Each structure stands twice: as structure tokens, then as C-alpha cells.
Amino acid sequence: MIKELELEIVKNLKKRCDEREKSISLAMEAFPCDSQSLLNQYLDKSLDGETLKGYMTHWPPQRWQEYEPLLSYCRDNGIRIVACGIPLKVLRTVQAEGINGLSKADRKLYAPPAGSGFISGFSSISRRSTDDPKQSVPFGPSSYLSTQARVVEDHAMSQIILQAVIDGGANGLLVVVTGASHVMYGSRGTGLPARISKKTQKKNQVVILLDPERQFIRREGEVPVSDFLWYSAARPCNRNCFDRAEIARVMNAAGRRRDALPQDLQKGLDLGLVSPEVLQNFFDLEQYPIIKELTHRFQGFRERLLADPKFLHRLAIEEAISITTTLLAQYERRKENFFEELDYVITDTVRGIVVDFFTVWLPAPTLSFLSYADDKAVPDSVDALNGLLKSIPDNAFQKNLVGKDWNISHRVASVIVGGVKLSSVGFISSIGAVAASNLLYAIRKLINPALITNQRTKRSPILKTAAIYGGFLGTSANLRYQIIAGIVEHRISEEFSSQTILVNMLSFIVRTINSYWGTQQWIDLARFSGLQSQKSEPPSYQTLDSPSNAAIGCNTLEDTSIDEINNQ
Questions:
Q1: Structural domains of the chain, with CATH
Q2: Which of 210, 233, 285, 560 has the fewest CB atoms within 10 Å, counting from its CB?
């Protein structure tokens, strides 16, 4: 919440002022200046919070809850609060009738002096070109009245703030909490800082925008909207989050042009969402021809390599473990018939490679700007589904990215969606593998009928095998690979990113242990579900296996029939 951030800022400033023996005051636009006496009674503890709340009838119900912690802190720590808002009656009169609708007394108190050019410079507030499609320039009586109301507010508030500065003494600090429209462009704008700087030129002013909802990209020579843009966890940074000068330096050092980059990266740069480190990682990856082709041609590879430059290392380690343990298990099972049944070996090995690829691919953390670059017209239902999928992380343990604020619900949804994806992979790959095995069996029978005639074969139940294996991948394998990719290889390994050998060894050890544990779980599940006989013992090499290699167990009944063939 913004109010929580305001409270933290006031607390820190109070602490520093106490260390330097300076006074601190707080001016708040939320309180009209005619309620100053009520505020003083509240600060003196002669008026309780509920009574003060009763006088703020123009506030929405939730506003008191938002302001109460800050007000209580100021009261308990002796911080003076100045009500700097203009009375509601005055504001509404100007909005409806203009300055001429005010009484002479109110006009003298709140309106700028006659002939002061109160709307001069107002056209420069936007600092934007008039052809900006996102900027509206209204005309007519209502817009002119709104302009008058804005100027009256700025003038009246500036007078109150100037008096508060004088009352606070030469060394005092005044914190003003007001809307962004009153302080934008600082002393070079037309709001409070500009009006105050004309009266107290020796006073330093700093303008901070807290969690700005919308920013325009500042062009060369334009006045900055504020001195600081303060983003917090209350609202994630979603625009202009990184120093564009540093981005330009990285681009120039690499000798690259923006229009040569992928479209999503260009859009991310335009919005200020690409950090200098991510851009440098992208240029480093381009030094390798194969990786360069992958990052430019395939969105998925680019997203994963930007989030984890060592993604291909993880994939290679997993596939190496998969292929090695699969071939060892196949050889021990088939013995002297290994080369004669090479077609079956290849079928199971290819299935293992495909499944292992997806067990690494799907839970891997990603860094995507596709949601910002994708403007294609799609049906509402598809757009809603895309929006849902893009709102959750690919890995439940992935760190929050720029423009993202993933909570526990998003992370639980990531596990569920990842499980559905892996279940689909397991189901389809299992059907494909068993179907391929049956096709090979039919081809063998066609080529050599004599070998098959007297055999009693028992084919695997395709749908049952696929359903159980898909469920296994979607639950056990999904959780294990989410933890490996998100915690071990994303969070822990990032702390030792400079030690490549250590990181790769850690990945290899963890994935090997995971393969062994996954195989044991699959064997237990296969026996429990009846896919594998309780009497059959797995080969010793098969204990070093991954979920995809454990898919060999999916064909247990198939392999049993093959063993019967071999025995005959």
C-alpha cells in the first residue's frame, strides 16, 4: 500500500532528523485547511481518532484506515501535521462557477492575485507533443473551470506550505503528501514546487513519485517528471524501470542497433523493462553461432536463456543422464539381443529424450516480454486464456520479474499448470511409444512370421499405461523438477554464478539423485497399479534413472512379451 510506504519514509526521516537535532513536520492535502484546529486537538490527544474520523465525512470509508497508522505515528512522536488542502466548499464552487463564483473574502484567501497570469505556462505542463494519441486535450467551459480549480488549489496549498516552512525554522524539514499532479516536473513545472521556489529560492526541494501508475517515455531534452520514481512491492515497476543511458552504453559497446533485435526485446526496451544485465547476457549469448540462431528464431529458447544463461547446460546434463541410464538399463534387460532388438531400444531411448527435454523445458524460469509485444487480434476466450497463462510464472519458485508481482496463488497455479502440461506430455509420449512398439512388433511379424507363430504375447494396455504415466509426470516429476529448476538452479546457483564448475557439478549431482529417486517412485507406482509384476526386479542400472527413463517401466508388459520371444 502507498500509505505504508509513506509511513516508512516518515519514520526514516524522523530518525535522521532526531540524529541531527532537526524538527520535522508533515503537510497533508487530504485534510482541508479549515480542519487544522481538529488536527491540533487530535495531536494534543484531546480528540480521539473516531471523533476526528466523524468530521471527515467527505472521505471514502477505507481512507481513514489507510491514514490512521501515519496519523497515530505522528501523534505519538510529536510530529506536527499541517492541513494544506483547500476547503471543499471553495473547491466545488470553482469547479462549478469558476473563480468569479467565490466571495470576495474567499477569493482573497485562496485565489491568485488578479493580473498574476495564473494560467501562464499551463500549456507546457504536459511537455508532450499534441499528436500523442494517448494524451487527451479537452476544450470547452468544463476544461477551463477545471484549470481554474487546479490553479486555485496549487496557489492556496503553496501559501499554506510556505507558512509551514517559516514556522518550522531554518533547519526544519517539511514533508508534503499530495497528489502527483501538484508536483510533477518539480520547480520547472507549474505546480507547488515551482510556486514555492519563487518565494524561497534557498530552500532545497525534492519531488518523489510513489509507485506512479503511468509514465510517458521521456525524450531527449524534456523536463523529468520528478527527481525520483519510487517503486515498491505494493505495485511492481511496469515502465521505465532501468537507466536508459546504461542501456545505450551496452548497445554501443556491442555495436548493435535496436531494430536488429527480436521484436519482443525491442518492445521491452521501449518500455524500459529490459535491464542492462539482461541485454548484456543476450549479446554474450550471441557470440556462439548455434545459440545465436536459437535465441533469434525460437521465442521459447530466448525466454529461458535470458532468465538462465546456463539453461542449455542443464538440458545437456539431464539428457546425458537420461541417455546413459536408458541404454544401460536396456542392455542389461536385453543382453545378447540388444543389437537384434535395436529398434525397440531406439524407440524407448527417443521417448526418454523427448520426455526429459520437456521435464527440463516446462519448469524452467523464463524472462518474457511477449505480453507487451503481442498485439494480434484473437478471440476473447483465447485472449483470456493467454492472459491467465501469462500472469503466472513458469516456475513456482522463480523470483519476481520486472512488472510482475507473483503471490502464493500465482505460484500454486504455476505448479498446477505445469503439472497439466507434463501430464499431457507423458500421456501423449506413452501412447506414441507403445504404438510405435506395437508397430515394430507387427513389422517383425510380417518379416519373420516363423519367429512369432508360437509366441504368447501380452500387449501393454495403452490407455492405462498412458494415464498412469501422465499422472506420474504431472505430480511427482513436476514437483521435483520445479524444485530443481527454481530453487537449486535458479536461486542457489545464482549465488555462485561466477563458479561455473561448481554450479554444473551441483546441477549434475542433484539431477542424478533426482533420477534415482524418481525411478524408485515409478517402480513402486508401476507395481501398485499392476503395470509391473511384483516378482520382477528392475535391472541394477535402471535405478539410476529419470522419470522419462523410468518410462521403460511403462513398457514392462511389452518387455515381458519380448523376453518370452527371446526365451523361445
A1: 2-230 (3.40.50), 244-295 (no CATH), 309-567 (no CATH)
A2: 233
